[in-house]
Amino acid sequence: MKNSRTATDYSIFCNDNLIIFEFFMPLTNENSLRNSLDALFYKDSVMKRLKSIDTRILEQYFARDESGSSDYLEGICDWVSTNFGGYSINHVSGRYRAKELSSLHEAYRYVENGESYLVDETTAVAKFIFPCGEEKIVNESSFEPESESFNETVSEEIKKEYDKIRFLFFKLFVQNIIQIVNEEDEIWMRESGMRNRLYYWRVK
Q: Residue 34 belongs to what H/E stretch?
């Protein structure tokens, strides 16, 4: 049955900082990727990966007195439960040049020889969104122009949380993804939000 809530039932919440990670990979990897990522929805899988990380490195990001639990790794699992909720996958179609830039006549010669010059490929984009810092309640006036606030300084607490999210994302998710799609010549990941970066794993 459809929920009968109206817009007046909602309060508006906002996070001023967020981190977005997007993986770009051929569609042929999607099922393996989903199975691999879905395993990380379960505590035993997360715990297994945490146990594989050197405790001295973990303590650089998660001090023992921050764990909120008598068991250090249990406390980090609680943090993961709060901050890592899920992911989404969408498909995008693209066309790529498989050879160096060539004339039309040269491109036809590639095709005649059974090679590809232009390649059509559907890409699966796995997206992860992580709010960073405390959420706040806002109202309609918050949608008025705020361009003067673009240069606000990020607090040290937000920077530490940013580091925690990136660290565990790489340890729990990125390493898992690379193991699944390591047959590709190159894998791309885009980070946006607080930082804008492009990472790529390339076969040497």
A: helix 30-38
Q: Across the 204 residues of the chain, what is the mean pLDDT of every consecutive 10-residue run? A: 62 89 86 85 92 92 69 90 90 91 93 92 91 84 62 82 93 84 78 93 76
CA–CA gap between residue 204 and residue 201 (Å, rounded): 9
Pick from 41, 126, 56, 134: which is nearest to 92 by CA?
A: 126
Determine contact, residues 201/186, Cβ cutoff 8 Å.
yes
pLDDT given for residue 67 in this prediction: 47
Backbone angles phi, psi at 193, to 5 degrees: 105, -110
Alpha-carbon dihedral 188, 191, 192, 197, rounded to 10 degrees: -80
pTM: 0.81
Domain ranges of the chain: 12-91+125-202
Can you spell out the DSSP letters for 134-156?
A: --EEE-GGGGS--GGGTTPPPPH
Name the percent of the chain in helix, strand, coil, to the closest 5: 45, 25, 30
